[in-house]
Design goal:
Number of strands: 13
Shape: globular
CATH superfamily of the largest domain: Bira Bifunctional Protein, Domain 2
Number of domains: 2
Order of helices and strands: HEHEEEHEEEEHHHHEEEEE
Distance between the termini: 48 Å
Largest sheet: 8 strands, mixed
CATH topology of the largest domain: BirA Bifunctional Protein, domain 2
Mean pLDDT: 93
Structural class: alpha+beta
Number of helices: 7
CATH class of the largest domain: Alpha Beta
Radius of gyration: 18 Å
Strand content: 25-35%
């Protein structure tokens, strides 16, 4: 697959060095090892399957055959405190790529892409930093492209979908990767060139969470309320009972049915 992707690739950074594996425990783990060994910015790890894919808050990401499971090594000059901008850029890039197939993909705060209310993609960014300097970031992206979600465990099956299910035919994964790499590079370069607000504005317009009743699970508490917007850094603003406004920087977001 790597040679096919490279053949039609129109990027300068992302995907110019591809490392293809049939099976790995986690593409993020492989990418971390390679980044520690000095792998160049834009290096991508692609796997047909992950046996221990990494999800949000340490959860396992189900990664069978026929999906797109990748990790991208990036080396931006930025504060570790701004690494979340890479997650926003990646989520936007995935949503734009899926929408290029005529599917109404939206972003679910903070790091998922959904179709309707069903999850089709997750993004996980991990970093290595030295106090005020980011050494590198690993942006892991998992997309259920042609995955048969009926084979997923029951607890996640009902909330999952794939491009194949939505389009009722398989998607060429090589073409999907080429589109994704080009879009990801575009968004990443906007972040690098101090144009994050433009990225955030595009992301905000694709955000499905605003206007929803939500439950936010954080390591220290659970927040209930209505998501009324995001601030200039992408934090979610939740109006809680009594009109109290809570700014949420990170957490698991669940969209709730209205009473």
């Amino acid at each position: 697959m790597a040679a096919e992707v490279e053949k039609g690739l129109e990027t300068d950074i992302v995907g110019r060095r591809l490392n293809y594996f049939n099976e790995v425990e986690s593409t993020n783990s492989v990418a971390t090892e390679m980044a520690d060994d000095g792998a160049a910015e834009g290096t991508v790890i692609i796997a047909e399957m992950q046996t221990h894919g990494k999800g949000w808050m340490g959860r396992r990401w189900i990664s069978p055959k026929d999906g797109v499971w990748i990790s991208v090594i990036l080396r931006p000059r930025m504060s570790p405190a701004h690494a979340y901008r890479l997650t926003i850029a990646a989520g936007l890039a995935v949503a734009k790529t899926i929408r290029s197939y005529g599917i109404d993909a939206r972003v679910k705060w903070p790091n998922d892409v959904i179709i309707g209310e069903k999850k089709v993609c997750g993004v996980l960014t991990e970093i290595e930093a030295e106090i005020a300097n980011l050494r590198y970031a690993i942006v892991g992206i998992g997309v259920d492209v042609n995955v048969d979600t009926d084979l997923f465990p029951e607890e996640i099956r009902v909330g999952s979908t794939s491009l194949k299910a939505e389009l009722e035919h398989p998607v060429d994964r090589v073409e999907f990767l080429q589109r994704l790499f080009a879009t990801l590079e575009y968004e990443y370069l906007r972040v690098k060139k101090d144009n994050f607000q433009a990225v955030l504005n595009d992301w905000r317009h694709m955000l499905a969470t605003v206007g929803k009743r939500v439950q936010i699970n954080t390591p220290t508490k659970t927040i209930y309320g209505e998501a009324i917007g995001v601030d200039s850094e992408g934090s979610l603003i939740v109006e809680c009972k009594g009109g109290f406004l809570e700014k949420v920087v990170a957490g698991e977001c669940i969209h709730l049915e209205r009473a």
